[in-house]
Structure prediction request, 697 residues.
Amino acid sequence: MRATISSSSVPSSSSSSSSARFGCSSSSSSKTKRQTTKATMSLTMFTRRHNRRNTTTDTTITNKAIQDPSIETTGRLNETLEVEDTASAIFPKIGMHPDREHLVEKEGNFSWTKQWYPVAVADMIDPLKPHPVTLLGTDLVVWYDSVGEKWNVFEDKCPHRLAPLSEGRVEPDGSLLCAYHAWRFDGEGKCTAMPQANNQREEERIKGNPLSCASSRPTMEEQGLIWCWGESSSGSDETVKTEAMMTPAPVIPEMKGVTKSGEAPGGAYRNHWQMRDLPYGWCAFFENAIDPAHAVVSHHTLVGDRYKDPAGFACVVERPTTDNAGFRCAMDPAVPPFNTIGQYDGEASYDFQPPCLLKIDWRHEECRFLTSHYCVPTKPGWCRHLVATVCQRNEFKEDIQVRKHRWFKLNLFTLTSPAWMTHVLGPTFLHQDMVLLHQQEKIVMKKHMEESPDADMGEKWKDQVFIPTGADKMTVMFYKWFRKNGPIPWKPGNDKMPEIEKDESKLFDTWEMHTKYCTHCKGAMRNTEILTYASLAVAFGYFLSILASVDYATALLAAADEEYSLVGVLRRLPTNSIYSDIFSCFSFLATAYSLDAFKSLFKTYKFSHSEDDIMAEGTAKIGLANDGPSLYIDLVDTMLFKGLSKKDLEKHSYGCECSNCDTKNFEGIRSVVMANRVRKRMAAREDEEGKPWERRS
Prediction:
């Protein structure tokens, strides 16, 4: 079935300053003035509350807790981090899709199975073949019905003898054929052909039996992803389908309307989706992804410097934790890689929305990058990661400061890279985490099973780690949520955590984790092989030319009736061409060697933090991983966004969550540093005395 997710418009900004940023405008000057007053009053309330309560709660109490062990009960976890200061959460639904705002107030525990999960990227997998996937420990198959023009997801077992349907065939008539006995199934899972029946009447009778149907799941395609419901529907029971249609998926409104070129409404661009299976679990992924402090350390040279960039910060709760809507926090200030230390003109928020979405929202008054991570719990010790980034740009100014930001440069680079390039470079970033997370979760689980296997996993994590500072607050909040709403309901019999993988060829196997099902990368790999063999062929041709020249020189020496000698042969070589042939031969050999080395990235990419990484170092050398100017980024930024008019920038994505397109997002400005900067700018713009923000102590 194809479910439809509707979106609704989001109100425009309630601030006059927002009309300049991201191209938002007000309908009238009087309305703008009223809205400006409302925004500044809310901003003042926020900064006062934030300075008074958040600074006291998150900094003073945290420091006191570190100095006074009596405040802690476990001795390992600073429990003040679990106390959410909601003073800054003026709008408790901030960051939520309009169709999902009701989840903030929804009562009852979180249900893992009554959710939508993205299981594949539509343009990455071959529509002519069935594809095996796993969700919550259950094996599934994804296939495309070319007649009905829709994707379908079944449980990966034929109802006849339980053979895997993923080993079958997608037929031209829009059916999925089981390769064991040639039973066929339509998009709804109904059996359409059964060759073993004695006659047509018997076949129709058996096909009418619900037991002959494949177990199908509600499926839809949205924002380039194939979404699957967390449980199967059986026979004529429409309950599951109805629940799926009534439940909105965690889609990103900024990605609505994105074309194949990546262009989105409102002068925005989205890079290509990335998807790969990772050898660590759902909890390990979110624990890591929601932790800003690790970025410049684990991803040394790629996004920062492990020796210079680590810094402390506070976490401001923007949306308090709820069972069904997760939580949202901002960094105060947004330390590297989001800013340079001491120059905090950008801000960053982390938005966790269960069961699978994490949004990293980086905002600068000239630009915004929204990175959306989806993590699908496939099986214990494994997850499927899907990620894409949307860039929204403001009008160009004479002095473009945002181009100097490393976060801007790194993300902008991916906007113009072809899909295969983005995918093949992905492991340079992901494997830096993977080598740590793969072992970390097994270490936690091993002690968990040894000491008290009946205890909750989230509780055991809390008892094992040592967390004294506020930099880990979001990770603490995540495990607090998981302690209440976990564990993940794995399929019985498929709930055992695997052992630590010591074989590097398996741990870093990019072929199995990504390339084998990615049409972009398989095509690029095939073309790379062709270029490699072509380079070798050309090099061999030049080698034959060199041999021919040597043979010709030898013949000249013999014709001159001179005694054979190497010097005599070299003296008679055609100097105009021989050196050129030698240079060309070695050049093409070097090209073939380089192409073969590049091709290996589609199969494996090994990484160790104890050794320097050439590719990561190369990123730093060309200026992408450091703050400062970059000619390449200047060209890309100009090429993508320079031609946008103010009219183009006003046409934002339907349901846009821009910090200034949405009233609640602007008034809930993220950090004290940003709030003070906005306050000063507003004071200078109005140029009037006695304003509330000027009287603030």
About this structure: Residues 1-74, 651-656, 658-672, 688-697 have pLDDT under 50 and may be disordered. The CA atoms of residues 405 and 627 lie 5 Å apart. The first strand starts at residue 116 and ends at 121. Residues 519-559 form the longest helix (41 residues).
